[in-house]
């Protein structure tokens, strides 16, 4: 074997199976700071490293976490959580209720800039603390004793479900004080979950080892999360024996995939929506609803989901996916029209916006590195060109660069968007379009939309709440602030020796609920 060949093979295919669980994880996680995690890639790792007051089992069901039990007051405004005895950090130090409260205060401090702290706005003082209008000590989370944490809410909310999110994980503040942003590095990160951080090789893999201080030892002693930004390469790695579980599956004809992989292919409904966003702060999409609608009308979603994605995705004409509990989402008014009728209307809207053969739109469509995203962007660009004559420049960026540019809304025009539910609630999708949301990548800012979200929070019944949220979503769709394309399915390849892998709508699979048998000869 030539010099240098072995390291290349190890980087490509990973170590031999049987030494631990090898998981594909998509792009490089942007952080392992639980409070600052903005994406699925870091959340997957953090759910192994940390445990909140409430946890989810392998099927997405709520189970006791740090708290062994909890109760809520009759008005739904006070939640009391009772901690397990003898909770410990991964370094062996006791983990008390005071540490949990201090961690929550850090999560909502303005300097932390927690991207999903807005999901917790039902906690008294949470929004004011995050804005710097109140000190963190005024947050409605208290510890009357070492084993009790009390939350004071301003409205009813499904608090146990929210407490499974990384924003609610306890961060070890002494390491943060000593090491600052570097507290997430191997040898410095102190966590409280089933695993602890052993190694982090950037752009390659994150290695976790079983945490001996955890109250329920994991069955698998070691887990490696591999960076698998390119789905085709991830598939090759799985076939070569380097992965037990893939993060996704590249677009291919479904019958061929089933024939090739049989029961190893796991496709399930998923609470996620894929859409393209428009930068509403900058031309050409600022103050241009007719143009935004024209581009949406020109997309043949049936072709995209049948021939480009092709793994059970459903065409989307709205933001919130079907299947969210207690909610019937609205759809764009022309969703039932034929594609020919949509394209005729697209050309009229395009002309109304001042564009045509003699003045074609020139636009940049930005997406993060990924085989599925590249294929879809190419197809969208072709449809815009064929139906409207739009000149499209495709811009592919590495994940961290893409996320930064999308958030800043300076150089973006059209961009890859989408949202995977944090909790089974339509508000989780809609909140991102509040004017002050850190996840509002479009810049959409409509006081009437925000007022409807606030009215939903104050609604006397769940039915009234759902009705207000539906009005808010309809208003967002009428503004054409986004271009819905499809609703996700979760899609993984899972080797037969992996046990405990259960489909669930949020597609969460903590390693501590999995088992690993020796591979068949």
Structural overview:
- By secondary structure, this protein is an alpha+beta fold.
- The chain folds into two domains: 5-226 and 494-516, 3-Layer(aba) Sandwich (D-Maltodextrin-Binding Protein, domain 2); 269-489, Dipeptide-binding Protein, domain 3 (Roll).
- Helix content is 30%, strand content 19%.
- It is built from 16 helices and 19 strands.
- It has helices at 5-13, 40-49, 97-108, 126-130, 159-162, 173-179, 231-239, 254-261, 289-297, 301-309, 339-352, 371-388, 399-408, 426-430, 447-457, 462-478, and strands at 21-24, 54-56, 62-64, 67-72, 78-83, 141-145, 148-152, 195-201, 205-210, 222-226, 265-278, 314-315, 362-368, 391-397, 414-416, 419-420, 482-493, 498-499, 515-516.
- Strands 11, 12, 13, 14, 15, 16 and 17 form a seven-stranded mixed β-sheet that branches.
- Strand 13, helix 12 and strand 14 (391-397) form a beta-alpha-beta unit.
- Helix 9 (289-297) packs antiparallel against helix 11 (339-352) and helix 15 packs antiparallel against helix 16.
- The chain is globular, with a radius of gyration of 23 Å.
- The two termini are 26 Å apart.
- 45% of the residues are buried.
- Mean pLDDT is 93; it is low at 1-15.
């Amino acid at each position: 074997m030539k010099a240098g060949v072995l390291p290349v093979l190890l980087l490509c295919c990973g170590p031999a199976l049987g030494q631990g669980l090898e998981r594909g994880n998509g792009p490089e996680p942007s952080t392992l700071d639980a409070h600052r995690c903005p994406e699925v890639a870091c959340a997957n790792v953090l759910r192994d490293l940390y445990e909140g007051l409430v946890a989810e089992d392998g099927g997405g069901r709520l189970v006791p976490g740090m708290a062994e039990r909890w109760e809520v007051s009759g008005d739904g405004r006070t939640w009391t959580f009772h901690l397990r005895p003898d909770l410990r950090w991964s370094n062996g130090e006791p983990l008390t209720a005071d540490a949990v409260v201090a961690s929550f205060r850090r999560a909502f401090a303005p300097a932390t800039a927690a991207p999903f702290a807005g999901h917790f706005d039902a906690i008294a003082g949470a929004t004011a603390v995050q804005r710097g209008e109140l000190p963190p000590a005024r947050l409605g989370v208290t510890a009357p004793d070492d084993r009790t944490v009390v939350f004071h809410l301003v409205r009813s909310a499904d608090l146990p479900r929210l407490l499974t999110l990384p924003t609610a994980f306890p961060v070890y503040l002494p390491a943060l004080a000593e090491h600052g942003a570097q507290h997430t590095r191997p040898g410095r990160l102190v966590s409280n979950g089933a695993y602890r951080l052993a190694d982090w090789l950037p752009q390659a893999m994150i290695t976790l080892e079983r945490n001996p201080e955890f109250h329920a030892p994991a069955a698998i002693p070691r887990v490696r999360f591999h960076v698998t930004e390119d789905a085709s390469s991830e598939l090759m790695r799985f076939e070569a024996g380097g992965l037990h579980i893939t993060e996704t599956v590249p677009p291919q004809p479904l019958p061929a995939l089933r024939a090739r992989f049989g029961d190893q292919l796991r496709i399930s409904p998923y609470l996620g929506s894929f859409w393209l966003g428009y930068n509403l702060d900058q031309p050409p999409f600022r103050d241009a609803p007719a143009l935004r609608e024209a581009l949406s009308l020109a997309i043949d979603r049936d072709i995209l989901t049948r021939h480009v994605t092709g793994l059970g995705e459903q065409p989307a004409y709205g933001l919130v996916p079907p299947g969210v509990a207690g909610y019937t989402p609205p759809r764009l008014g022309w969703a039932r029209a034929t594609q020919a009728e949509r394209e005729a209307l697209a050309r009229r809207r395009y002309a109304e916006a001042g564009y045509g053969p003699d003045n074609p739109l020139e636009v940049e469509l930005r997406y993060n590195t990924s085989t599925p995203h590249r294929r879809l962007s190419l197809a969208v660009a072709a449809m815009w060109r064929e139906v409207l004559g739009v000149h499209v420049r495709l811009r592919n960026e590495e994940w961290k660069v893409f996320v930064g540019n999308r958030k800043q809304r300076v150089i973006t025009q059209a961009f890859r968007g989408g949202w995977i539910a944090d909790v089974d609630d339509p508000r989780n999708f809609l909140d991102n379009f509040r004017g002050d949301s850190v996840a509002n990548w479009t810049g959409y800012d409509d006081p009437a939309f925000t007022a409807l979200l606030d009215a939903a929070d104050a609604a006397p019944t769940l039915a009234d709440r759902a009705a207000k949220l539906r009005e808010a979503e309809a208003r967002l769709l009428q503004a054409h602030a986004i271009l819905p394309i499809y609703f996700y399915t979760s899609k993984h390849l899972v080797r037969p020796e992996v046990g405990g892998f259960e489909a669930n709508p949020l597609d969460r699979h903590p390693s501590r609920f999995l088992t690993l048998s020796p591979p068949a000869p």
